[in-house]
């Protein structure tokens, strides 16, 4: 027993040495780009609290999808560093990761394309749909003396149930959580069961283990293995991924979707009120299941759902209806995107719009901006 | 710096790899090469931290004292004292300049900060060797041995401060320990890692006292400001020490000194420094306090020896504070602790005068007094530790707002 235990302990140290050596070799020799797999972009922003970090210049790397550099200016916006003040006198565009330009180089985002076409545009997007954040940014920028010529709110269809406490619409400086709140937050994060979920463990491994990232990316780049891993559900197949809560396409829950859309539209209307008579519109960005019905069919088949009970357009139509009811102008790109008949306007394994999709979106938005 | 590698911290994959390598070398038939392994591992560890400028500074800091020590090794003649004294003075001045203490930043002729990782611990090991070199003639001394003693990757970041004789004895005993010792060491190491890397970070909040000025701050926030950092400091430091001692024991080295003995159960500040960072406080006792104390008794008239002793205590604790940090907050920390130690001595003397020796013992051992003493000591330590985590200006503003 003692001898067996000694052997186990020795093997443990041998394993640790072997893994450590391989990991260090991966970081230095054969996979130094691993840090680009999940760089840290959100943190304490001096203007807006928890937001995109300012002055970023980071590599984002997702094989089979993209290998790009993201920069942010001194405010943490995905916009130019020189000349941003001119953009703040132009079109303000709020949005989520699609508008932020996830997976794109700086010059490929539709707001940058608008800048390049001579239409000053400030990209004020963050990650995730968060109207309260957008209103906080609006208030802060207005308090700093800035005033746009037009405002656009770009909505992807991954809006989540909205909390009910009132938002602050006045300009408030970024708040650092108080000591007791910081401690409570750290302790509750540890207690959350989601902290130990498969997805969060994968995320931790991706951020900290170069070997894991190397194996994952190399395997995924081999088409045969990639497809096999897709079919096993080990590697994400974007066609099988629902952008936003999956139940929002359930026809039996149309009333709940409408209620969420109503709350979101109320926030949009409040935001419009911040800008007085300035031209204001909402850009609806369809999700990939709505844009590509064949992908939705694949999704339904995989999960045994009936097309009689599911409607990929449900969240889109719901938010469009409530916005129009409030006389908020709605811009649509769905028909323009479908009109290209391009089957790959999103990334291969990521539901965000790629550079081709952004060029089409830029065209629609520029047409609107020029007429206002 | 090594391209692609972040500096090896105690919780890094790199550190774990070096630990695994050390243990396996110590357990293998090539354990006689353990010193060579430690030299290479420690240089790799250091290389992940240093840029070219810092390498130059470290070489200048490390190499010359070795030759002075080598020349005086085992030599008890008084003629060698002058070079040793000069070496001590030079190293201390060099240390103060490189670390950039407040007021001497202008003496730094380089254009960007030098990495000073582990320099405080290296200095103390060097000074120990310089001071004791005459008495260590029986111990082996080579340049690789000196490098491993001063730069061991497992003690470079935060000690413990092992003495050279203990180091040599430990190196002579390198090998595979018995199973029960191995299991105990593993247990201690895992506990230490959990304390230092999982639990301690939950309590870490830098520069947080200024948040008490927020209108919405409450007494709960005040309590967190007061207690969280001392908890973090103890868990982080003692956990790290547990890890290092366990690694040393896994390699067969049983001479790594302990650093903590339930410090927050101390009943007064003297007791606290007999329980907190023991390898450091013993070093300060042996090489600062005792020599100064001896000088006071030998050189000063009896009538003012008590004043002299008080000054020795203050000087010792000013050095304690300065060793921990380069700013004025750490000096104030040292002065406060020095005054507290003197106060404890005076109080003890007054009690003995009032109650006699036995009466004093009954008084201080009484549970009620023990509880009061523990609360007072813990809160004094927590309040002074605020200086390590906040700027004096911020502390003053908060005190002003509260009063």
Label this structure with key terms.
heterodimer; A: 372 residues; alpha/beta; two-stranded antiparallel sheet; 11 strands; globular; B: 403 residues; mainly alpha; 16 helices; 69% helix
Structure explained in plain terms:
The complex is a heterodimer of chains A (372) and B (403). Chain A is α/β, with parallel strands linked by helices and 372 residues long. Chain A has 15 helices and eleven strands. Chain A has helices at 2-30, 84-87, 97-100, 110-116, 131-143, 179-191, 198-208, 210-220, 223-232, 254-274, 288-291, 293-302, 314-325, 334-339, 355-371; strands at residues 42-45, 49-52, 57-62, 66-71, 91-94, 121-123, 150-156, 280-285, 329-332, 346-347, 350-353. In chain A, the strands form four sheets. A five-stranded parallel beta sheet of chain A has the order 6-5-7-8-9, sandwiched between helices. In chain A, helix 4 (110-116) packs across helix 15 (355-371), helix 5 runs parallel beside helix 10 and helix 10 (254-274) crosses helix 13 (314-325). Chain A is globular and about 80 Å long. Mean pLDDT of chain A is 87; it is low at 163-171. By secondary structure, chain B is mainly α. Chain B is 69% helix and 0% strand. Chain B contains 16 helices and no strands. Chain B has helices at residues 13-27, 34-47, 52-72, 81-99, 119-132, 143-151, 153-156, 164-172, 179-199, 219-250, 269-273, 278-299, 305-324, 328-365, 367-389, 392-402. The mean pLDDT of chain B is 91. The chains are: A alpha/beta (372), B mainly alpha (403). Chains A and B meet through helix 1 and helix 6 of A and helix 1, helix 9 and helix 10 of B.
Fold blueprint:
The complex is a heterodimer of chains A (372) and B (403).
Chain A lengths: L1 H29 L11 E4 L3 E4 L4 E6 L3 E6 L12 H4 L3 E4 L2 H4 L9 H7 L4 E3 L7 H13 L6 E7 L22 H13 L6 H11 L1 H11 L2 H10 L21 H21 L5 E6 L2 H4 L1 H10 L11 H12 L3 E4 L1 H6 L6 E2 L2 E4 L1 H17 L1
Parallel strand pairs in A: 5-6, 5-7, 7-8, 8-9
Antiparallel strand pairs in A: 1-2, 3-4, 10-11
Chain B lengths: L12 H15 L6 H14 L4 H21 L8 H19 L19 H14 L10 H9 L1 H4 L7 H9 L6 H21 L19 H32 L18 H5 L4 H22 L5 H20 L3 H38 L1 H23 L2 H11 L1
